[in-house]
Amino acid sequence: MNEKSINISDVINLPLDTKEQKKAVDSKTPCVVDGRLKVYNPDEDNVKRLLELLKNKLSRQVVGSMVGCVHCGMCSDACHYALVRPYDPTMTPAYKADQIRHIFKRHFDWTGRLVPWWVHAGTPKDDEDLKRLKNIVFGTCTGCRRCTLNCPMGVDTAILVRLTRGLLTELGIVPEGVFVVSKDSWETGNQMGVTQEDYLETIQWMEEETQAELDDPHFKIPMDKEDCDFMYTINPREVKYDPRSIGNAGKIFYCAGESWTMPSWGWDQTNFGLFSGDDKLGGYIAKNLYEAAKRLRAKRIVISECGHGYRSTRWEGYNWAKYKQDLPSESVVVTLIRYINQGRIKVDPSRNPLPVTYHDSCNIARSGDLTEEPRWILKRVCADFREMYPNRSDNFCCTGGGGALSMVEYKPLRMEVARIKAEQLTATGAKIVCTSCHNCVDGLTDVIKHYKLDIKVAQILDLVADALIIPKKNEKK
Amino acid sequence: MSEFLRILEYEVQIVALAFMGTVYILRLIWMFRFKAGKEITDPVGNPRVGIAYSMMNVAMPWAMESARKNWNFYAQFVIFHVGVVAAISATFIIPFWPGVFEIKALVRIFQLALGAAFAVGIIRLIRRITSPTMRLISTPDDYFSLVLMSSFFASGVFAVPNEYEVSEWPLIIFFIMTTFFLLYVPFSKISHYLYYPFTRYFLGKTMGHRGVFPRKRGGERPAGLEG
Ligand code: SF4
Ligand code: SF4
């Protein structure tokens, strides 16, 4: 699995591409016109702006991570970038965090203000420095938080990287992909720019497919139905590339005799604000969803399989939107456990005979709370489940985290770094790698293609649907 | 004991200690002036358990892969910090409870701890200088702090016998270093012990709230996964 190593200066010096920004300005895209989404202005004093923004973003937690690093270097062994490129010191998490730490020290910390050179405190000279900063925080970190959990001091490097991304987003100094996805999120309420029409048509199509599969014309994917047990929210990728997962969910809910609904607006459980560091966007998307559940008087929110979507909807979104949690929300994985436990669905593991391994999504295992639940299900729906090592909160990122899939310019580096994931996958001997994240599906697919592995990617819901024993019509209550 | 050494051991130390304490209080006020983030979601785990787990992390090398994979480094960490405790204790024992160092076995234990910490300090300095990764992230403060600590340990080895009647120089050097140490530390990265509770508290609170801490290893099942 050896391959040519990327010259890191080619990555760090990638120029800022603003074609999409210009297009958005020319076509008077509302979120750009009203300033919700910023475009790069070379005439502005961007360094000064960055310092003002930084001042407003400093919380006690952030300051703790700014001042707490002792430069012990322990985090370098935790990061997949640093492990694959041990000869490249710029891959060390502490180095990446130091890029913003130096600025913080120069302007907010005593020693840095008095004797900057002593602690390497400094201010970016110009926009070129900010563009290099963009390439470091967007291009060399997937925000996986592996370094965070391996730092003896408890320094949260991933949070500092996200903070820096957020500052640069406010200046329009972002990769093109980040700009485009943010624009789509503001404009359409979902990160893939799926139109309302496409969304509803896809649901309709899946409803018909599932009716045929179940041989029941009464099967429905209930839209905007009030007072249900839960509101089901999905990843726009399911509409665009994997509608089968919506059908599978419907089929399982049908067999479990569930009372559920999907909203026609506020249905995107993913949230690009997590990746771009834009709390405003994060709050907007999350609030859409919370308000939809309120509008429909749902008793809970169920989140389809997506790592960052789960993290955003279940945890961060409430904080970004300053929205006090008023309903329980859970991953669909937890819903499935309830069905199996209560005997509401029956599964036959022999229908999934191939060896299956499980990839823990970073956002679920390190920033969420689900490590045992997916395994509990897989052991019941697969005949041959195998662990991947390391696993749970020690697992390595699929390399598609942190919005990396939307930043094509960094893909060569990402694929080089993916070697560690490829080796992990190969060692299991599994034929299927299961994950509970749509983003990881794409990340893992890239790894598998690039390293030519004989493995397929699946999600828990797919495997449960495959193992599902569909009751005969007269058996169903 | 000469008057010079006496003043150095008592008055000078007390003034330097008061200075350090004052700077630390100001530093804490500075930290507390930044707003604390608030978690407004329903918890899955217990934030208090998460905080306790996070704080104890340093004493649980099995809980962190970086320590599990680097036992050697973890051992160095323990030895170094035992040396820190020994050196700081000596700065109080010598002037205030000199009788303690009349117990020769105790003096040997302190010398062993300080000598081992000095050796670790040198190993760490070599690592910081020779490893390109460490060089890239190191600041002058990082090098100086390590040199300072290592010299402090070395001077402690000769000071703890507290034999001023034989020669005062080991004690004079040790207490001059202590004074400098007390004045310099609040402005250097050596203050990390002041920040440790902060970073660990916040990380533990969030991770405990979300049920990530205590970290689950294979075989542990959260409630609800019966059957
Ligand atoms: S492990 Fe933590 S303290 Fe050590 S260099 Fe990395 S971030 Fe800094
Ligand atoms: S968050 Fe992950 S990718 Fe980023 S520096 Fe830390 S370990 Fe590396």
Summarize the structure.
The complex is a heterodimer of chains A (477) and B (227). Chain A is built from 25 helices and eight strands. Chain A has 477 residues and is mostly helical.
List the helices and strands and how they pair.
The complex is a heterodimer of chains A (477) and B (227).
Chain A: H1 8-12, H2 19-26, H3 30-33, H4 46-57, H5 60-68, H6 80-84, H7 93-108, H8 110-114, H9 127-139, H10 146-149, H11 157-169, H12 176-188, H13 196-214, E1 230-233, H14 236-240, H15 244-255, E2 260-261, H16 273-276, H17 279-295, E3 301-303, H18 307-321, E4 329-331, H19 332-341, E5 355-359, H20 362-365, H21 372-381, E6 384-386, H22 411-417, H23 419-428, E7 432-435, H24 438-450, E8 456-459, H25 460-467
Parallel strand pairs in A: 1-2, 1-3, 3-4, 5-6, 5-7, 7-8
Chain B: H1 3-32, H2 47-56, H3 65-68, H4 71-96, H5 104-130, H6 132-137, H7 140-159, H8 169-184, H9 192-209
Helix pairs in contact in B: 1-8, 2-9, 4-5, 4-7, 5-7, 7-8
The structure holds iron/sulfur cluster (2 copies).
Residues 69-75, 93-94, 151, 153, 155, 157 of chain A line the site of one iron/sulfur cluster.
Can you describe what's shown?
The complex is a heterodimer of chains A (about 475) and B (about 230). By secondary structure, chain A is mainly alpha-helical. Helix content of chain A is about 50%, strand content about 5%. Chain A has helices at about 10, 20-25, 30-35, 45-55, 60-70, 80-85, 95-110, 110-115, 125-140, 145-150, 155-170, 175-190, 195-215, 235-240, 245-255, 275, 280-295, 305-320, 330-340, 360-365, 370-380, 410-415, 420-430, 440-450, 460-465, and strands at about 230-235, 260, 300-305, 330, 355-360, 385, 430-435, 455-460. In chain A, α9 (about 125-140) crosses α11 (about 155-170). In chain A, about 55% of the residues are buried. Chain B has helices spanning about 5-30, 45-55, 65-70, 70-95, 105-130, 130-135, 140-160, 170-185, 190-210. The longest helix of chain B has 30 residues, at about 5-30. The N and C termini of chain B lie far apart (about 75 Å). The model of chain B has no long low-confidence stretch (mean pLDDT about 95). One iron/sulfur cluster (SF4) binds near residues 79, 81, 158 and 161 of chain A.
